[in-house]
Structures are given as C-alpha cells and as structure tokens.
C-alpha cells in the first residue's frame, strides 16, 4: 500500500493556491479519481515523491526526459551555464548551436525560431502560414492537441468537416470560426474539405504521429495524402512534432514516414526539460516572421541560455555516434520499448484482457479496447473504467504512468532491463485485477 500522506496534505494546500492544485490540468489525476503524488526529485528512470516512494517513470515529464532525469551531462552543463547568468534577452551563440543541431536532424527546417512552449510554436506556425498565404482558414484534426491557443481549442462539430465551435468558455466564436476540424486518419473527409475549400485553407496542422488521443498512428498513405492535397491547393503542411519529434525516430515522424512538411513544430526534448519549443520550415515562410517580415512573434525568454544549454546537452547525447557494433541511441530506445510491449501484450493475453498496444519508436500507449483504434472516436470508445483500475494497480506497484488513456507514455535511455522486467511483472498483477473488475 502506497503511503501518500504528505502528498495528500500538500494537495489540499495546493488546491487553495492554484486551480485544481496544479499548473497543468492533467497532473491533477482528476480523470482517475485519486490524488497525485507530489514529486520531490528524480534520477534516471526513477521519480521520487515527498513521502519517499520510488517509481519507475514512463511519463518523463510528458516527453522531454528522453535521456532520463538529471542526466550527469545535462546537470554538469547547467551547473556551468548558471554561473554565467540566467537570461540576457540578447543573441547568444547557444541559440545558433541548438538551431544547427535541430536543423541537422530535420533538413526540412531551413530556418527556425525558438519559443518557450509547444503552444507558442504551433500558434506562431499557423500565424506564419496565414501571413504567407494570405488565407485565414486552417484545418486541424479531431483528437489532435496542439496546445491551448484559442483557435486550436476547438470541439469538432457533428459530421466529417465542420467549422470549429469553441471547446472552452473564454474562447470566442470569432477566434474559432476559421478552424476547420476533420476526423484523423479519414482520407475521404480531408479530401472532401480540400476539394471544397482548399484554396481558402492557409494550413493543415497535424500530429503526424498522434499522441493526445492516446498513441494513434497514421494509416498507410495518410500523411502522403495530406502532402499531396496541400501541394495541390497551395496550403502549408505543418507537422506538429512537439511530442513525436526525436521520439517516433530521431528525425521524428517526417523521417519515419518519409514525408517532408512545409513547417515543423518541436518542443519537449529540444529543451531537455527546460522550457524550449521551436517552429521552423521553408525559408520563404519563415522570412515572413519579424523582424525580417511583417508577421509578428516575440518572447522575453525565447532562446534562454539555460534552456538552450539543457537542449544542447540532451541532443548531444541523442545524436552521439554509437560504439562500434552498437545500435544508435534512438534504435536502442525503440528496441527497449518493443521488449516492454511484448511483455505487456503477453501479460494481457494471459489475463484474458483484449488491449490495443501502439508503439512509435520510444512512445507507446495502450487502449482497453478489443477493436482497432485509429482516431478520436475509436479511442474514446475504449474502456475508461478498466483503464482506471489498471492505472491504480500499476501506481500501487510503483509504476508511474500517465493518469489518462488519452496520453502517451515514453521510454528513456535510463530505463534498465530490470525496470522493464519489473514493469512487465506489475502488468501481470494489474491486468489480473482489471480482468476481475471486468468480470463483475
Ligand atoms: P506545451 O504548450 O504544453 O509545451 O505544448 C503543447 C503541445 C503541442 N503539441 C503537441 C503534440 C503536444 O503534445 C503538446 C503538449 N502535450 C501535453 C501532453 N499531452 C503536455 C502535458 C500537459 O498539458 O501538461
């Protein structure tokens, strides 16, 4: 039995100070009806709460911690950097260094702008695309999340393609009237929208590997279709790789699927756990951005030297030449993830539970669903109650997972063989408990 007394007390206090006691909703554990552990520190693949419980961490701060927590090289680089100050609000060599590292892995990015969050990156990429095309409408897909900018907080109306209606109070109809929402992985639906409205569409923004409806992979040929439709209609294709960048493969989904977008949004990993995101792409689009062009975008802490330092150190580890005969870092992550998922699949099978397990490089997700999951509706049809039983049973066994079936999990370079074996063993127990729940 987990002892979480200090976390419970801390949560009561935090809820007096911050909405829901958190600074980002998913951390509240609201969707799994229990209190979240308050974290004290983390190291490698482990995370430790204020009651002293140790967990194997597959959330990895929602993606950034690909080399593990408090990696010695990242910590050492930050300890040196902080001696030189924390922010200057002026150009530094560090920004150019990180830009070159990112662009060497993402050749589709001819110019890049650093920002502080994925929300800023996607918001700015859409603005750039609108400025570049002179058009106002853009397409997003149901179940894809691109941060909380007003025009992106849109609930799909009924039907395959509809004008967005606000998904949240405070978001006005005026800011969402130009957002066209379409089901993900539905080639006919997006083709219809583009045939009817393509010449008015500034951009299609897509998670090329979707991680915010659980992990959902693009169907065969789907991304190619988006590429062809956008080329045909002069629409900017924006790959939101904030989550799948450096995860689906080192070069993200665009490398894994061989599709070159016009713009890419990155985040999470490129900051190594500090606030960094970026948007970039074709030079003629990015040169629309101030101060060269008329499209305004700015940020006090954009390109912050400490954040750049953590990103540079992290990418240095990710892109280092492997030892002779060894797989490179990303390949090692993929193999480790595959081993974990094979064990989970067997555990579920032996417990008589039908689940869908999806993997994209070092990203993975499961659905309590006996049918294929390929879009938001099929994801939402999964058994949320079964998920809650599984989630709590895993937490009780010190396995730290995302508290929502609409999230994705991550393996890091710090996860050991022992971690993988312990997690598979925990799955055996958790799936048994879930099966008992389902049989009631
Ligand atoms: P941020 O503004 O949270 O840095 O990034 C927004 C964003 C943009 N694009 C994609 C594909 C994303 O996954 C995200 C943010 N991901 C969530 C996890 N589902 C962050 C976790 C949270 O909201 O606390």
Overview of the structural elements:
This protein is of the alpha/beta class and 440 residues long. It folds into 2 domains: 5-70 and 327-439, Alpha-Beta Complex (Aspartate Aminotransferase, domain 1), CATH 3.90.1150.10; 72-318, Type I PLP-dependent aspartate aminotransferase-like (Major domain) (Aspartate Aminotransferase, domain 2). Helix content is 38%, strand content 16%. It is built from 14 helices and 17 strands. It has an 8-stranded mixed beta sheet with strand order 4-13-12-11-10-5-9-7, sandwiched between helices. A 4-stranded mixed beta sheet has the order 1-2-3-16. Helix 3 runs parallel beside helix 10 (305-319), helix 11 (329-350) runs parallel beside helix 14 (417-439) and helix 13 packs across helix 14. The protein is globular. Mean pLDDT is 95; it is low at 156-161. Residues 24, 26, 62, 117-119, 122, 145-147, 207, 211-212, 240, 242-243, 267, 277, 407 line the site of ligand KE4.
Query: What is the overall silhouette?
Result: globular
CATH homologous superfamily title of the largest domain: Type I PLP-dependent aspartate aminotransferase-like (Major domain)
Low-confidence stretches: 156-161
Backbone CA Rg: 21 Å
Overall mean confidence score, pLDDT: 95
**What proportion strand?**
15-25%
Class from helix and strand fractions: alpha/beta
Euclidean distance between termini CA atoms: 23 Å
Percentage of residues assigned to helices: 25-40%
CATH topology of the largest domain: Aspartate Aminotransferase, domain 2
CATH architecture of the largest domain: 3-Layer(aba) Sandwich
Spatial strand sequence of the major β-sheet: 4-13-12-11-10-5-9-7
């Amino acid at each position: 039995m987990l002892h979480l007394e200090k976390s419970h007390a801390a949560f009561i206090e935090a809820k007096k100070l911050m909405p829901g006691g958190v600074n980002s909703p998913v951390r509240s554990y609201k969707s799994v009806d229990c209190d979240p552990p308050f974290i004290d520190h983390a190291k490698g693949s482990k995370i430790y709460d204020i009651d002293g419980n140790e967990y194997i961490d597959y959330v990895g701060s929602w993606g950034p911690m690909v080399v593990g927590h408090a990696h010695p090289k990242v910590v050492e680089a930050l300890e040196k950097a902080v001696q030189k100050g924390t922010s200057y609000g002026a150009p530094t060599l560090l920004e150019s260094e990180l830009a070159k590292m990112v662009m060497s892995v993402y050749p589709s990015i001819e110019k890049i702008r650093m920002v502080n969050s994925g929300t800023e990156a996607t918001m700015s990429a859409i603005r750039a695309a609108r400025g570049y095309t002179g058009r106002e409408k853009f397409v997003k897909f149901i179940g894809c999340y691109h941060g909380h900018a007003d025009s992106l907080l849109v609930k799909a109306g009924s039907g395959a393609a509809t004008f967005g209606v606000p998904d949240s109070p405070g978001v006005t109809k005026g800011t969402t009237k130009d957002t066209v929402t379409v089901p993900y992985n539905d080639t006919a639906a997006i083709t219809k929208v583009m045939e009817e409205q393509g010449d008015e569409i500034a951009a299609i923004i897509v998670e090329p590997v979707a991680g915010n409806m659980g992990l959902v992979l693009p169907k065969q040929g789907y991304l190619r279709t988006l590429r062809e439709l956008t080329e045909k209609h002069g629409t900017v294709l924006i790959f939101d790789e904030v989550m799948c960048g450096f995860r689906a493969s080192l070069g993200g989904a665009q490398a894994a699927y061989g599709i070159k977008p016009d713009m890419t949004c990155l985040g999470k990993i490129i900051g190594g756990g500090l606030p960094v995101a970026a948007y970039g792409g074709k030079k003629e689009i990015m040169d629309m951005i101030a101060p060269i062009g008329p499209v305004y975008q700015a940020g006090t802490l954009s390109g912050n030297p400490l954040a750049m330092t953590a990103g540079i150190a992290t990418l240095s580890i990710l892109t280092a030449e492997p030892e002779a005969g060894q797989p490179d870092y990303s390949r090692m992550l993929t193999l480790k993830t595959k081993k974990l998922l094979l064990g989970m699949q067997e555990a579920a099978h032996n417990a008589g539970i039908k689940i869908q397990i999806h993997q994209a490089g070092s990203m993975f997700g499961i659905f309590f669903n006996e049918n294929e999951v390929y879009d938001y509706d099929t994801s939402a049809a999964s058994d949320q109650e079964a998920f809650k039983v599984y989630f709590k049973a895993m937490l009780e066994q010190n396995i730290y997972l995302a508290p929502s079936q609409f999230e994705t999990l991550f393996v890091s370079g710090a996860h050991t063989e022992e971690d993988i074996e312990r997690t598979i063993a925990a799955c055996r127990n958790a799936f048994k408990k879930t099966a008992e729940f389902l049989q009631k």
